[in-house]
Amino acid sequence: MTDSASAFRIAVVGAGTMGAGIAQIFAQAGYPVRLQARMCETLDVALRRIRVNQEELIRHGLLGDADADAARARITVTRNLSDALAGAHFVSENVPERLDVKQRLFAEMDQLAPPEIILSTNTSSLPITQVARDTKNPERVVGFHWFNPPHLIPLVEVIRGDRTSNGTMDATYHLAKAIGKSPIQVQKDIPGFVGNRLQRALEREFFYLERIGACSGADLEIALKQGLGFRWSVVGPLEHADLAGVDTHAATVALLFPLLSTDATPPALFADLVAKGRLGVKTGAGVYDYGPGDVDRILTRRNTMLIDFIKVLKKHPSLRDPSLG
Ligand SMILES: NC(=O)c1ccc[n+]([C@@H]2O[C@H](COP(=O)([O-])OP(=O)(O)OC[C@H]3O[C@@H](n4cnc5c(N)ncnc54)[C@H](O)[C@@H]3O)[C@@H](O)[C@H]2O)c1
Prior knowledge:
The protein has 325 residues and is of the alpha/beta class. Helix content is 49%, strand content 11%. Strands 3-2-1-4-5-6-7-8 form an eight-stranded mixed β-sheet, sandwiched between helices. Residues 13-19, 37-38, 42, 94-97, 101, 105, 122-124, 146-148 line the site of nicotinamide-adenine-dinucleotide.
């Protein structure tokens, strides 16, 4: 935590799945946070979620009791938007993924906050330029896209809208670093930005391979978790090309690119599950079925593994910052 952090106030608007963890990370980095939601119940759930997240980090030795208490003391809650934005230096918006809702909210925030205050959106897919459409100061609107669970995944995307200023991009990027995240700068306001595009490109091939009977879905998950994902967390594709031999890499790329799936139609699987109300752990069934206690067990197991991986990152700082390698 830096001294300047305590004087730089953050407003987190929307306190659902993402807003809670985001407020937690800013507060743990020393920033005073005003967390806003329209309903008291949402705020209560968010504060409980933050405490549970922190207890997990404490159990695994990544957070001290006193630091956790101090971070929670930095978070104040409000139901009122102008109250949340009063005195804020940076705003993180986390309301549902609906363009009309975000456009209305940004127009209102644009009026409430002085023009030098950065307004960031955590949209997963909406164009930043569109989110900023009804603001008078679109140069201070930027994408700041976190990955779920936001208190554990290091990557954040800082996304330039058509009218986002260089100053807004730089300040947001440096803020992301200051809170311990691994930011990347996305310079084009393209659908899915970078993270989701890479993810869906891989999923397209995943479902194609399953459909033609090349491999079962279960084995494809092993291929990603035990092979590619495992290695990619240490060396990316360009670094790997050098290690494996650029000539070999060039030959494989030339052979395979023309053979990869170009399906434009998504697999029926997800639409079928949605039609059946199988929405995943939140409805007790999705791709898989979940019995009593399964969801808590699965979430705890996932978080424990991610936390263990954070410990690996701490042991090897160059994984986060290649300039240290
Ligand atoms: N859930 C994810 O995995 C994930 C990952 C990355 C980004 N995102 C993005 O983050 C944003 C929030 O997603 P989430 O999953 O936290 O949603 P969520 O539904 O869990 O939470 C949204 C919260 O915003 C509140 N809200 C609705 N309208 C509001 C308004 N006008 N003002 C203030 N609060 C309002 C809702 O009551 C709710 O508590 C979305 O844009 C989503 O695409 C989500």
